[in-house]
């Protein structure tokens, strides 16, 4: 067990010495340390502080920490300075999928096999938990994000790619949800290997991306929409220029220059304490069209940016990708219409349906389900693919892949653009 009170104390000491060194470097006209240099210097400071602590304990006639205890303290101090404090071991565990925190001592961890367990506290108090989130908000993403009584909601991307959502003052205790990005560099072949999609669907989607079809990925929360979006994006040729638009940076396509050397990642900017400086998703989508994109990828549609995005898809920006929350592939059209009604354009449903018909080529629906026949194992799989065929007062579509015996989508009806897909190597397997 690690003594967290010591970690907190030593974190303050090391942080003060680190800040002092920064001031000295600035006063002497030296360039600031790089992030990696600062981490290495912090490790040296941590060793120095722990050595001083051991000598002090011996001087007081007490037993100094063992080698194992010192290593645990050093890791804890470093995580508190540059990581996420006591959350770091959970984020380092590759099997952890989601972390839900309902106050500092009510921590629930979901694992990849569907198991959910209660975990040890992640802070000494709710105030300390809020302080941890505030530190993360100050240094994650492209701009500092406030998290206080005036700004009680927060969404951000952690250094490891995980998505954090936090609220305070609208709940009895601060609540935090962290969704892990377990599959960062993922391909359709990986998803075919783990059962998310069949080999036939992998070939279909590969051809659809190559044919520059506009694809909307739909599903419930935590169904795997973002992972599937990453896999689709990784089928795009390295020569293409990608613009991604997100509320909080999450896709991370720019982190793999060997796959995507030409990427610009946009992140929504929230207003400051005076209510100024906001840049909305809709504005960013409009801005992205002026940045010479080969494709525009909108991480998640949750509001009025849908109209701007659909307009972009109908103006020659083919091959766009996005995700949306929905309960079925058919419900996607109603969800888009609802968002369009909320937009400043106030598009009526008929106009929205015409826009959908001209913009979206395919809707891919991904399902999340606990399979109780296999010990409650959590399954994620594509269960439906719907092709948009046109508009006649409503969106006309056909379900070209439907749920098979095990729920995974199987071929059902021919697609109208089969010749285009065939030109990119797709041969239907079951029609």
TrEMBL record:
It comes from the Bacteria. Pfam families: T2SSE (PF00437). Residues 88-356 form the Bacterial type II secretion system protein E domain. InterPro entries: P-loop_NTPase, T2SS/T4SS_dom, T4SS_GSP_E_ATPase. Belongs to the GSP E family. This is CpaF family protein. It comes from Nonomuraea helvata.
């Amino acid at each position: 067990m690690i003594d967290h009170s010591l970690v907190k104390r030593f974190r303050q000491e090391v942080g003060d010495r680190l800040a002092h060194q920064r001031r000295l470097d600035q006063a002497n006209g030296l360039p600031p340390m790089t992030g990696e240099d600062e981490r290495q210097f912090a490790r040296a400071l941590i060793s120095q502080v722990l050595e001083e602590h051991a000598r002090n304990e011996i001087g007081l006639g007490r037993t100094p920490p063992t080698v194992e205890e010192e290593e645990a303290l050093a890791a804890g101090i470093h995580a508190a300075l540059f990581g996420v404090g006591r959350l770091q071991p959970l984020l380092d565990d590759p099997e952890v999928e989601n972390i839900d925190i309902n106050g500092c001592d009510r921590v629930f961890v979901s694992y990849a096999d569907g198991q959910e367990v209660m975990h040890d506290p992640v802070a000494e108090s709710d105030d300390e938990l809020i302080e941890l989130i505030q530190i993360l908000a100050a240094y994650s993403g492209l701009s500092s994000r406030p998290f206080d009584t005036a700004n009680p909601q927060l969404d951000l991307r952690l250094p490891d790619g995980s998505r954090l959502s936090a609220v305070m003052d609208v709940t009895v205790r601060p609540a935090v949800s962290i969704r892990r990005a377990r599959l960062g560099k993922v391909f359709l072949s990986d998803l075919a290997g783990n059962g998310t999609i069949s080999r036939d669907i992998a070939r279909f989607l590969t051809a659809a991306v190559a044919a520059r079809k506009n694809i909307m990925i739909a599903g419930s929360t935590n169904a795997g929409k973002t992972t599937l979006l990453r896999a689709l994006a990784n089928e795009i040729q390295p020569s293409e220029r990608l613009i991604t638009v997100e509320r909080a940076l999450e896709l991370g396509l720019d982190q793999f220059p060997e796959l995507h050397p030409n990427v610009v990642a946009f992140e929504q900017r929230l207003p400051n304490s005076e209510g100024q400086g906001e840049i909305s998703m809709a504005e960013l989508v409009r801005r992205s069209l002026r940045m010479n994109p080969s494709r525009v990828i909108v991480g998640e549609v949750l509001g009025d940016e849908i109209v701007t995005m659909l307009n972009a898809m109908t103006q020659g920006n083919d091959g766009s990708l996005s995700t949306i929350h929905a309960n079925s592939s058919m419900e996607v059209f109603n969800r888009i219409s609802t968002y369009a009604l909320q937009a400043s354009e106030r598009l009526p449903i008929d106009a929205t349906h015409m826009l959908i018909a001209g913009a979206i080529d395919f809707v891919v629906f991904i399902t999340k389900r606990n399979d109780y026949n296999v010990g409650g194992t959590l399954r994620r799989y594509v269960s439906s693919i719907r092709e948009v065929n046109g508009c006649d007062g409503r969106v006309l579509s056909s379900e070209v892949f439907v749920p098979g015996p095990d729920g995974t989508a199987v071929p059902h009806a021919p697609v109208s653009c089969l010749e285009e897909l065939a030109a990119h190597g797709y041969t239907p397997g079951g029609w």
